[in-house]
Amino acid sequence: MKKCTRKWKLIGFFLAVMGITFLGLEIATDPTDSLFTTEVYASTNQIGTANITIDIADWESGVERHFTSSNGTDMYVHWNSETSASIFIDNGNGYTETTLYDGISRTGSTQASISMGYVAVNYNIVDSRITTVPEDVKATTDTMAAAVTAEFPFSLSYQAHISDIGWQADRHDGELSGTEGEARRLEAIRIKRSDSLPIGDIVYRTHVQDYGWLNWVSNGESSGTEGKAKRLEAIEIKLTDDLAQQYDIYYRVHAQNVGWLDWAKNGESSGTAGYGYRLEAIVIKLVEKNGEAPGPTTRPFLKYPTVSYQTHVQNIGWQNDVRNGESSGTTGRALRLEGIKIQLTDLPYAGSISYSTHIQNIGWQNDVNDGLLSGTSGQGLRLEAIKIKLDGEMAQNFDIYYRVHAQIFGWTGWAKNGEPAGTAEYGYRLEAIQIKMIPKGSEAPGKTTGAFMENPKVVLNVPFVSQLTPTYAPMGCEGASLLMGLQYKGYTSASLKSFLDNMPKNSINPFESFASSPYKIVNGVFQSIFPEALAAYGKTYSGKVADATGISTAQLKAEIKQGNPVVVYVTNNFTSPIWGIFYMGSAGYVRTIDNMHVMTLIGYDEGTGAYLVNDPNSYTKNQYWVKKDKFEKAYDALKYAIVVR
After folding, report:
1. Residue by residue, what is the 3-state secondary structure of 223-243?
2. CB contact set of 260 (below 8 Å; sequence gap of 6+)
3. pTM surpassing 0.85?
4. Beta-carbon contacts of residue 317 (< 8 Å; ≥ 6 apart)
5. Is pLDDT above 60 for 143?
6. Which residues sit opposite 390 in a β-bridge?
7. Structure confidence at residue 606 as a pLDDT band (50, 70, 90)
């Protein structure tokens, strides 16, 4: 900062002392001079000694002055009015202010009269508290005659109008104006320049609640409102003429729910937009042109981010982008959503958006990010549900809410932050969607119940294959059960005979392939094919066949929920397992279930706990529900399973 320094002579040193003393404070007055003189004394471990002289003409010019004590402590003095002046003393953690007016000090026990326009005051300052001068400390000729260096440190001053307080006193050059931690709003601001600066103005404008940006004002004019309880939300400040050529003006604000933002400069916006957050404090500073910024400048202004999205609609195609809670899709026309793209703009924080959709006949897709397609286009498949979430710093500062218009149900409640919205296992289409972002922890845009409706009964329409007709394979339950799953997924249309004929076989070991023949009963052989070998055969039709041995009944239901039939090894008629030990060739003697039977699990009902199976050991379609305890006891004996995905 450019400074102007002058030497000042003490004027009218030989005072006509009137002998007025208050609490050990010596006061001298002289009606012929307009002079404010303050002498500051201190012992060795205190702030040092300084003589301060300020002409009352400083009131007329608005000049504020800086003085330094003998040990380097900063002191500032300025006139508030023709009969009032303030002294600011650096206390190591800010400034202690003492204001003299009409014979009484605002702080401490000091008293002085300045009604004559001239005063000499002796201070003793201990631990940043102003006390009276000890009796043995007196002004001397040598003390008063010392020359004093006076500066123009205050290149600018500013004051804020604060809710429930009103106008604060002036602050200067990087000092805080406003409050922190008191939840008080700034309502208006005035900014003034020093006369010592080059030609030019400080011009500024504020963004006010309900009004938006006000017109530019300058040089001490008020920007904002008084008596209307309207918050300031942002500010812009700039310089003109020679002043702009020689200086940069920096400023930063303390915003509700955000804290201190970084420094803005030369007309940049500082604060927030779109949040409804109040400004609570501000600091302003002049820096010589192209000088170093007072601090970080990365994030001086938080603009409310925008979420935009578009949907692909049956018979329409891609609609135009909408944003921030608007509806995309249709209602009342029975048209399905088939795809969606979502992206963020104007991000105030680092991060992105990701989303996943549940698609007819496919299930949940993997997450995609930032404008990529989730769903399908041109395949005629409906979206049934969606999950959306934020990532990175965006997730720490915002919640993402969304709701959908679902067939039969209409508008659902609002889901947020990765929760599912829509329906599951009903076969209902999504028809429209709304998405909006809200600052973290803010109130939801509406009811949050009923965002996701899940049918408690899940049934897959798996075709039935009999192991008894038209091909008679009394020991072929494993092959018939796997064939049902493969046909359901469209991986093969083979007949049971063709499927069994191609199945690998050996004489006695079901761990390697089918032991013996599925077409007849062979005594002394455990006629079966165990999951690892059966899954290996299934993979010749589709790589999505997997050995799922060991998965729990909850995982069985999760596979069914995803549309994946499961081959399960249970017991005949779900009776209690009968254990036996059987010789299986190279596998040796193996303990397993003598009354084993294999079938296809195709559904479940969370309401009753029952499981739905296709049992191939029948001449006619044999699909039935099995009570929870009976099914789980039979399955849990071995936990043998194969999933067709």
Report:
1. EECCCCCCCEEEEEEEECHHH
2. 252, 253, 254
3. no
4. none
5. no
6. 353
7. confident
